[in-house]
Amino acid sequence: MSAPTYLEYTFVVEPLQPGTDILIAELSELGFESFVETENGLIGYVLEADNVLPSFEDIPILNDTGHTITWESKSVAQQNWNAVWEQSFSPITVDDDCIVRAPFHEYKQVAHDIVIEPKMSFGTGHHETTYMMLKHLLTTHVKDKIVLDMGCGTGVLAILAEKLGAKSIAAIDIDNWCYTNALENAQRNGCDKIKIYQGDSGLLSGRSYDVILANINRNILLEDIPIYVNCLNKHGILLLSGFYLEDLDMISAKCASHGLQFEKKLEKNKWVAAKYVF
């Protein structure tokens, strides 16, 4: 069976921010799987079999008079992703304690060195939400805890959780690319406490965790927060991201209605990562 072909869309966005971040969020709803931010916009990847062009007219930011966005597209073979990614990916440092880097980057002495090769998966630390979740995790007590990384993407959060001493970690993603890539990255980082599953929150029935990480999007979070709470042990911690500052009140209200207390938040370019305790 031949490898699936992707469409590569190159977008020029004016003004660049927050336009680029808004466009990423809205394209994700159409099935775009990966993004590379550029100096004047972004590159997005979607399976060629998914006919997304008719849906472009429904993307709010493309009809927003406050932004000017142009684009062009071409077909690319799946294996071309690594070459594109290597040209644009630079190491990410979080609080001087953690570096997320590619296999071809030089090793530097830090407390937590994470090697990620994302292929078509999301989560390198470049996006604000992943960066803030890493930052939250570095100050969260996970040693000897049972952790869930929901919507794990590359598995970077699960990997950091193991490096921080978690007793066991479940990493779940609905996308097969993410599932396969997370397996590869966990092995690459010598992780033996991470169990990776393909699926959604339906896999959580009967399971319990001390810390739950969910970097997904607002609508899925609102739908799944009750499920997370049912899985959260007493005094457990829920870290959420994938939504904008304007959505925080809605997310917090949903958490409060299920017994969670808001503790703190991080903000970056209008994206938010919030911490709740049970």
Key descriptive features of the protein:
278 residues; alpha/beta; Alpha-Beta Plaits; Rossmann fold; 2 domains; 4-stranded antiparallel sheet; globular
Q: How is this structure best summarized?
A:
The protein has 278 residues and is an alpha/beta fold.
Structure description:
By secondary structure, the protein is an alpha/beta fold. It folds into 2 domains: 5-85, 2-Layer Sandwich (Alpha-Beta Plaits), CATH 3.30.70.930; 89-277, Rossmann fold, CATH 3.40.50. It is built from 7 helices and 14 strands. A 7-stranded mixed sheet has the order 10-9-8-11-12-14-13, sandwiched between helices. Strands 2-3-1-4 form a 4-stranded antiparallel sheet, sandwiched between helices. Helix 3 packs parallel to helix 4 and helix 6 runs parallel beside helix 7.
